[in-house]
Design a protein that fits this description.
The chain is an alpha/beta fold and 252 residues long. Helix content is 37%, strand content 17%. It has 2 domains: 194 residues, Vaccinia Virus protein VP39 (Rossmann fold), CATH 3.40.50.150; 44 residues. The chain is globular and about 55 Å long. The structure holds S-adenosylmethionine.
C-alpha cells in the first residue's frame, strides 16, 4: 500500500490501533498527574478516539476538550462522548480556538512529529502557544533522535544514510520511515519509503519551544520518568541517559 502522508497513515493502517487503544502509559500518567490540574480547562491535541481524555475524565479532570484532523476518529469519539468534549475536525497547524482559551494543553503521543514540513511544525507550536492562557501549562512529547541512535537502530540509520547518499537524496536523517504500521513491520522502510515522522534532537526541540515563547520547566525522556525525576533544564539532561520518548513541560 502506498501512503502519501502521515494523515493518511492515521486514517488507514494505524486507525484501528488508535481507535481501540485503552488506558494510559506510565509516562502519560506521570505527566498528567504531576503537572496538570484537575479543575483547569484542558485541550488534548490529536486525541484520536479520545483515549487520553476518557482516562483524564476518570482521574477527575472536569473541563476537557480534544481535537483531531482525521474525521473518522472524531466520529468514533463522538459515539462515546455524551459530554461533547471532542471538537470537530481541527488541524494542529491552523486551529479555530480563540486566543488564550485553555489553561492547559497536552500534545502527547508525539503529534508534532507527524507534521511533515518544518515550517508547519513551527506553526503548530505557535498555535499551541496562542491558545494557551498566560501562566498556563503545556505538556509536549517528541520522538527522540538521541534515543533512536542507539543500537540496534543505529545500524538501520547508517544504512538509511548510505541509501540516501547513493540516491542523491538530501532528506535529513531525522526523517525516519515508519518501522511498524498497524502493529506489523513495515518492510518498505528498508527501501526508505515515506511517509516520514520527524525525530527531534533535545536541543532542537528546546530551541523551537523557546522560539515560540514557551518557558521550559521540566524536560526528560521515558528513562527520567521511570526514575520519577525529570530534569529542570536541558543542560542537566545532557549528563543523563536518554531512552524512549522526549518530554517537555512548559509554561506560557
Ligand atoms: C499517535 S496518535 C495518538 C492518539 C491519541 N492522542 C492517543 O494517545 O490515543 C496521533 C494522533 O494525532 C493526530 N494528528 C496528527 N497530526 C495532527 C494534526 N496536524 N492535527 C490534528 N491531529 C493530528 C492523528 O490523527 C492521531 O489521531
Amino acid at each position: 500500500m502506498s501512503l502519501i502522508n502521515n494523515k493518511e497513515v492515521y486514517s488507514t493502517v494505524e486507525f484501528d490501533l488508535w481507535a481501540d487503544k485503552k488506558s494510559l502509559t506510565e509516562d502519560e500518567k506521570y505527566l498528567i498527574v504531576k503537572y496538570l490540574k484537575k479543575n483547569e480547562k484542558t485541550v488534548e491535541a490529536g486525541t484520536a478516539a479520545g483515549r487520553i481524555l476518557w482516562e483524564m475524565k476518570d482521574l477527575g479532570f472536569q473541563e476537557l476538550y480534544g481535537y483531531d484532523y482525521v474525521p473518522e476518529f472524531i466520529e468514533q469519539a463522538k459515539q462515546r462522548d455524551r459530554s461533547q468534549i471532542i471538537s470537530f475536525e481541527e488541524d494542529a497547524t491552523d486551529l479555530s480556538y480563540e486566543n488564550s482559551g485553555f489553561e492547559q494543553i497536552t500534545y502527547l503521543q508525539q503529534i508534532v512529529c507527524f507534521i511533515e514540513e518544518e515550517e508547519k511544525r513551527l506553526k503548530a507550536l505557535t498555535e499551541a502557544y496562542r491558545i494557551l492562557k498566560n501562566g498556563g501549562t503545556a505538556v509536549f512529547s517528541f520522538l527522540s533522535f538521541e534515543s533512536r541512535i542507539k543500537s540496534p537502530f543505529v545500524f538501520y540509520l547508517a544504512y538509511l544514510s548510505m541509501l540516501r547518499r547513493l540516491s542523491g537524496s538530501n532528506r535529513s536523517i531525522q526523517y525516519i520511515p515508519w518501522l511498524k504500521l498497524g502493529g506489523k513491520y513495515n518492510f518498505l522502510a528498508l527501501l526508505d519509503r515515506g511517509p516520514y515522522p520527524y525525530w527531534y534532537k533535545v536541543q532542537e526541540a528546546h530551541q523551537i519551544l523557546t522560539q515560540v515563547g514557551f518557558k521550559i520547566i521540566s524536560v526528560g525522556s521515558s528513562y527520567q520518568i521511570g526514575k520519577g525525576k525529570m530534569c529542570d533544564d536541558i543542560e542537566s539532561l545532557k549528563h543523563e541517559l536518554m531512552a524512549g520518548m522526549l518530554y517537555f513541560v512548559c509554561k506560557k
